Amino acid sequence: MDAFAYRDGRYHAENVAIRRIADAVGTPFYCYSRTAIEARYDALAESLKGLDALVCYAVKANSNQALIRLLADRGAGADVVSEGELRRALLAGIPASKIVFSGVAKTLREIEFALAQDIRHFNVESEQELHAISATAVRLDKTARVAFRINPDIDAGTHEKISTGKSENKFGIAVTRVESVYRQALELPGIEVCGVDLHIGSQIMTLGPFEAAYSRVAELAQALRDAGHGISTIDLGGGLGIDYDEEHTAPSVADYAAVVEKTVGHLSCKIIVEPGRWLVGNAGVLVGRVIYTKSNGSTNFLIIDAAMNDFLRPSMYDAHHTIVGEQSSAAPEKLYDIVGPVCETGDTFARKRKLPAMEPGELIVIEGAGAYGSVMASSYNTRPLVPEVLVDGDEFGIIRERPDYDSIIALDIPWTATR
Ligand SMILES: *Cc1c(COP(=O)(O)O)cnc(C)c1O
User: Fold this and answer.
1) What pLDDT is stored for residue 1 in this prediction?
2) pTM for the complete prediction?
3) Which end of the chain is less crowded, N or C, counting CB atoms within 10 A of the terminal residue's CB?
């Protein structure tokens, strides 16, 4: 079943008319499909069945408690990149033993908290970070399990802002430094080396970069083992792309799993994958309402009540998202620039998009908004953070309220002198 589709001419999430939710919640809002998320997780788990694999959901893609809980109930672990995300994963029911802590620079406070929770392992990104983890572990009388994030110097062929596996990117440890870093780790107190890690980027649409990077990491793992290091875990990161439009087709998850098997399957390691976007990206939409239409010269503008602060991907990554009217319409098509009300030209969701003519008050749906949507939202222009709704079959429920203006403004407090 397609989680989002027209029925009798109206856009539905599962069996719930989007219009019904808009009446209850107001616009704009994010809407997710439980069925879609669970189906994705199940398909991935099924593809990896023959391997000793753990799916650690990359919480940064969408960290709503209700969504993490759906995945936790299915046995997922979590990949977190901050103390806040670690707290979210734990509160949503993911056991610490299934949580890995990634990220370029963990602070002492974050390391302390993660050690106190006894998380599965840290993915370490620099020698200084390794030393910080060792010192903290000694102070707390703990042992930190660590894997090192390798920078394999591989071009993921994706947007430059989400490309992370090239040597000029800030991520990971250069292949040339790997041997020396692992040797240091052997000697440091409070550290137990458990594996190798990498993550080469996001929205990767061909398997070639994965295959190249995973092969490189497999060779490294073997060499490290030969040198006496305890390599029992291979963490392959996330990055598998999804279809945002009809023209581009992402690799199938079965083919992705075949690459995993082929490249690292022989090492008899615990294999960790960290998908974010792939699990939730197409399981969510952003729904807004047309406020006004206008034409400036040759350009027709559709001005909607969602904006770049609610959904940053088009302005941040030049991302293409399918945008449709809530009502299937036989009106003649027009070319629209679909924009928000924020005072920046960057507040544009799409340019020269063909849509049946729309009128103020009509609902509009931005598809593929489940990942890196709500989590990147801000209250720029003092626009309240967008609420989130989860649909399950015939039912829907609010999983994050729209804050009221008083509570937004009350975050500021009157100035008083502090000495
Ligand atoms: C962002 C990130 C992921 C998830 O990436 P997706 O493209 O959403 O799958 C996984 N691991 C790490 C370390 C990340 O930074």
Assistant:
1) 56
2) 0.97
3) C
